[in-house]
Design goal:
Elements lengths: L3 E6 L3 H12 L4 E7 L3 H11 L6 E2 L2 H5 L7 E4 L7 H10 L2 E4 L7 H14 L3 E3 L7 H11 L6 E11 H9 L12 H4 L2 H11 L3 E9 L31 H7 L1 H9 L8 H4 L14 H10 L16 E8 L4 E10 L3 E8 L2 E8 L3 E7 L5 E4 L11 H15 L8 H20 L3 E2 H13 L1
Parallel strand pairs: 1-2, 1-4, 2-3, 4-5, 5-6, 7-10
Antiparallel strand pairs: 7-11, 8-9, 8-15, 9-10, 11-12, 12-13, 13-14
The chain binds nicotinamide-adenine-dinucleotide.
Nicotinamide-adenine-dinucleotide binds next to helix 1.
């Protein structure tokens, strides 16, 4: 069997995560080209995958103006740089695995669906959680009818406080105009899962939420310096202290003290994230400290230029009258999703965290509870990254479709996210059927 050939566009954190699958499964897939403007990242990725210098490119344009070098490309560039390379790759004859969000506005998402469907090539969106054992087991329990008819579905995306500070206050997803609203950036996965689990479209949606904490007015004292490294008077007692998060790894140390029976998943084991983001993977203490003194990640969380929310609630009604709520927030003690589904025959309660994955199914008739421990605790995305790569590579090799995460099925979650942001900002209830029809009509007109 000849390995499927892939080209990577965007050798950042996600690019390396997909690269790992190829290193673990060299018989199935290999990376033969890479494009990234950052020489260190491009070089590191190329070295790991033995990519010759002729197949290393500074930008996606350089790669995609050549005749195809591979069977498929992975587009893992920043959010605002998804559409152009994805469209160019489809037009060049590549299958495409595109990071989420598909695009940062709804018309571009719809355009991508049409581009994919008219190209005859696959456009898959990295909704990796659909490939995790955890969400597959939840889905199978629902499909098997063990809960009866779903009546309410509550889903929470609990973003741990230091991840919130890293990505949505100091980092790349802090401003809606530079990336996208947090409900899209963080929760297109969750809206996708909710739509999948509910098994029918949503028809009405409302939403509330705000940026409550990470702004100057919420600072514990008025005299805080612009940077944690500028002699901050509350550095020792601030949970968001940048030196504590990136240099001392204080959040992980305190967790290790509190938890003795379950090993806490330590990101540093696999990829040193989030410190790896500060200086392109250079983890030397002096380099990290300089990055904190000069770069965005050393800024006081009360003095950044962030504008995305730190909490948002979305309420939705499905076509047959069932209710669903999504709570997204950035103030959790642990990273992870929690959910509860109440049906006419049973209740499901589940936790999907980096410490422990559990699903409890309570049967109304017997009163019995079954506890399931899906695979994938202690693995990023519960094993979804590897699951998606395996499915994508197989579909490319066999020339089959992969409807689970194709562009059209991914569109729905993006549409819900944009609707939620509009509902939050305007304080309105959105008729999703009309919203959907308008989105499709705009693109076709
Ligand atoms: N599926 C998931 O669960 C998941 C999780 C996290 C992030 N993401 C998404 O994945 C994408 C990448 O995120 P990341 O954390 O890896 O970001 P990153 O910043 O670490 O990596 C992006 C890379 O793209 C490169 N790039 C920029 N311009 C380019 C160009 N013109 N040509 C080629 N490469 C270019 C950058 O130099 C960088 O190395 C984002 O859209 C993000 O929202 C998805």
């Amino acid at each position: 069997m000849c390995p499927v050939k892939l080209a990577l566009i965007g050798a950042g954190d996600r690019g390396f995560a997909y690269g790992k699958y190829a290193l673990d499964h060299p018989d199935e897939v290999s990376f033969v080209a890479v494009a990234d403007p950052i020489a260190v990242r491009r070089g590191q990725f190329a070295a790991l995958h033995d990519i010759p210098s002729t197949h290393r490119f500074v930008s996606w344009e350089d790669l995609l103006t050549r005749p195809p070098l591979a069977d498929a490309v992975i587009v893992a560039t920043p959010d605002h740089l998804h559409v152009a390379p994805a469209v160019a790759a489809l037009r060049r004859g590549y299958h495409v695995l595109l990071e989420k969000p598909m695009a940062t506005n709804l018309p571009d998402c719809v355009t991508l669906v049409h581009e994919a469907e008219s190209s005859g090539h696959m456009l898959q969106v990295c909704h990796v959680l659909r490939y995790s054992d955890f969400f597959n087991q939840v889905y199978q329990i629902i499909q098997a009818g063990r809960l009866g008819e779903i009546v309410t579905l509550e889903h929470r995306e609990n973003v741990v406080y230091w991840h919130m500070a890293h990505s949505f206050v100091r980092g790349n997803w802090r401003r809606a105009d530079e990336s996208s609203p947090m409900i899209l950036a963080k929760c297109c996965h969750d809206l996708d899962l909710m739509y999948w689990m509910m098994g029918e479209p949503f028809v009405r949606l409302s939403s509330v939420g705000s940026l409550l904490h990470f702004r100057p007015e919420a600072a514990p004292r008025p005299d805080l310096p612009e940077r944690c490294t500028d002699g901050c008077p509350i550095e020792a007692e601030c949970p968001f202290s940048a030196p504590a998060i990136y240099l001392e790894r204080r959040p992980w140390r305190s967790l290790a003290v509190g938890v003795t029976d379950v090993p806490y998943y330590d990101f540093s084991v696999e990829r040193a994230w989030p410190a790896s983001v500060l200086a392109h993977g250079d983890l030397r203490p002096e380099v990290l400290r300089r990055a904190l003194e000069e770069g965005p990640y050393g800024r006081c969380v009360y003095h950044c230029d962030n504008d995305v929310v730190d909490h948002q609630v979305v309420a939705m009604q499905s076509a047959s009258g069932r209710s669903a709520t999504l709570i997204m927030h950035g103030h959790s003690h642990l990273e992870g999703r929690t959910l509860r589904i109440d049906g006419t025959r049973g209740t499901l309660e589940a936790r999907f965290t980096h410490m422990l994955n559990t699903i409890e199914v309570h049967d109304h008739l017997t009163g019995r509870t079954e506890v399931v421990h899906p695979l994938g605790a202690h693995v990023v995305h519960g094993g979804g990254d590897a699951g998606l790569m395996a499915a994508f590579v197989r579909a490319v090799r066999e020339g089959t479709q992969l409807p689970l995460t194709d562009a059209r099925s991914a569109l729905e979650s993006h549409l819900l996210a944009f609707a939620a942001e509009q509902a939050r900002l305007e304080g309105i209830v959105i008729d999703l059927q009309a919203y959907r029809a308008a989105a499709m009509a705009r693109e076709l007109s």
